[in-house]
Write a structure and sequence with these properties.
159 residues; alpha+beta; five-stranded mixed β-sheet; two-stranded antiparallel sheet; 5 helices; 7 strands; 30% helix; binds magnesium ion
């Protein structure tokens, strides 16, 4: 069986705003996330995990932050491109696992909606998508509430 694994990691800092986009879900919050696109740290890590499994570079190469056409882009566009490349290469996504690292917002109440959103974007079943969360015990930049980090794994199987 031809299986490929990829990992992805991303960080975005909190900035001015009144909501966050996380895994394609809009969460009301006292701050926003800073970034060139919609700063959806979860979808960015997942996108990089898929590109990584394909050994096709990273999200910054496919969608350069210096390119104004990606300003404010909804990040499902990036993940959909990675999924498109997966199909083009003769693979399908077997499962993805995402860990969001932050003190706030609390992810638990929204995890189910995030799983559904990711499953919809990738076009896989809910039981192929995991969205988890942890804090960093108040240590480091996530612990100080300066932003959100995300870590993702994707497994691809040749069709
Ligand atoms: Mg990013």
């Amino acid at each position: 069986m031809d299986i490929r694994l990829g990992n992805g990691f991303d960080v975005h800092a909190f900035g001015p705003g009144d909501h966050l986009m996380l895994c394609g879900v809009k969460l009301p919050f006292e701050q926003g996330l800073s970034g060139h696109s919609d700063a959806d740290v979860g979808l960015h890590a997942l996108t990089d995990a898929v590109f990584g499994a394909l050994a096709e570079g990273d999200i910054g190469q496919w969608f350069p932050p210096s390119d104004p056409q990606w300003r404010g882009t909804a990040s499902h566009v990036f993940l959909e491109k990675a999924v498109e490349r997966t199909s083009a290469r003769g693979y399908r996504i077997s499962n993805v696992d995402l860990t969001l690292i932050c003190e706030l917002p609390k992810i638990g109440p929204h995890a189910a909606a995030m799983r559904e959103s990711v499953a919809r974007i990738i076009a896989i079943d809910l039981d192929q998508v995991s969205v988890k969360a942890t804090t960093s015990e108040r240590l480091g930049f996530t612990g100080r509430g300066e932003g959100i980090a995300a870590l993702a794994t994707a497994a691809l199987i040749r069709e």
